[in-house]
Amino acid sequence: MTSTKEPVAPDRLSSQSSSAVALHTGTSDPRTLIMRNLRQSGIYVAFVVIVALFAILTDGVSLSPGNITNIVLQYSYILVLAIGMVIVIIGGHIDLSVGSVVALTGAVSAVVVIQQGHPWWLGILAALAVGIAVGAWHGFWVAYAGIPAFIVTLAGMLLFRGLTLRVLGNISLSPFPAEYQQVAAGFLNGLIGGDGYDAFTLLIGAVAAAGYAVSGFRTRVARVRYDQPVESFPLFVARVLLVGAVIMYFAWQLAHARGLPIVLIVLAVLVLVYALLTRRTVFGRQVYAIGGNLSAAMLSGVKVRKVNFWMFVNMGFLAAVAGVIYSSRSNGAQPAAGNMFELDAIAAAFIGGAAVTGGVGTVVGAMVGGLIMAVMSNGMQLMGVDQSIQSVVKGLVLLLAVAFDVYNKRRAGATR
């Protein structure tokens, strides 16, 4: 899936410095300004609209404290997979094996903990080790043998599903000890009190909202300093306030349910770490460079093979994390676990703004894309929509998201 188009930096939306100056000074053509702002903030607007739509269609049930908690618990492993998948896609590849890796790592953990009676934490370590080994296996064939990732991971999907069946002996294993179940079903509450709500959850929500605002402001200042295009200041403020309000509402609902889910803390740490990794490190910028323009990256001295190898090692690690979370939530390991998870992760990345040709995408965007899929699935389930219709709707949303990306690229190319 690698391409030879112009490289795109993680925070860069256009290479036209004159357009950048016009954009943040407010002298750009109104239609162009609207389209650029839509590309930058459209995913957040779409998320809010979808949340509001299902809140109306379900008479507010979708926004109830209990249901919001269930969304976090039910779709956390897909969001973890989306983090790794968007990095792989930015690098110009794809990974079709993650669902099978989720099943295999969960199976290994179950055998270690349930069947062999070892401590729960040893099962987690074993699962992570297997995930890293699987990632190294894929990375070797892609980076050093030169086989396309599509073929390697398609083979991996079959290979590791078969190994899952062998490890489990075609049977399910359960239950896990209570400590293991806490990974996906545990909550932190009552740490600092609260009258009818968990004040600690609200505090974490306020910190998250403030962190988002500060990070957004710093990114905007940096872009303006280097004459890169930014959204208009009123839209920037509106976006920050909107996202902050969503975060605080989300925290308020969790605080009135069971408190802060442990799995949400794990997910938040992963999002922060990988957002910094992709934006602020040499490795992250090299991933964007490889996906944006492979030839230019090689000529610039990027060690393409090494970067590709570690991309898949990272994907294997995150698939193992998702495997631990999923097996913890289901309180066991099943041969069919993780079925079609790879498609949900890929959909989250593309809906969140990743480009099919590589070089474009963000971790935060993938999270929003995953949440859109989660809210849609949950909302349609609450409405009693038939499973076949749910698949049709989700397929159309994915198609429209990619079509919107292609449309924007064609318009951008026509205006240069």
From TrEMBL:
Residues 1-24 are annotated as: Disordered. GO terms for cellular component: plasma membrane. It is a multi-pass membrane protein. The chain crosses the membrane at residues 41-62, 68-89, 96-114, 120-140, 147-168, 199-221, 233-252, 258-277, 307-326, 346-376. Residues 13-24 have a biased composition (Polar residues). It is found in: Cell membrane. Pfam families: BPD_transp_2. The keyword Transmembrane applies. Keywords: Cell inner membrane, Cell membrane, Membrane, Sugar transport, Transmembrane, Transmembrane helix, Transport. InterPro entries: ABC_transp_permease. Its main location: membrane. GO terms for molecular function: transmembrane transporter activity. The keyword Transmembrane helix applies. Part of the binding-protein-dependent transport system for D-xylose. Probably responsible for the translocation of the substrate across the membrane. This is Xylose transport system permease protein XylH. The lineage of its organism: Bacteria, Bacillati, Actinomycetota, Actinomycetes, Micromonosporales.
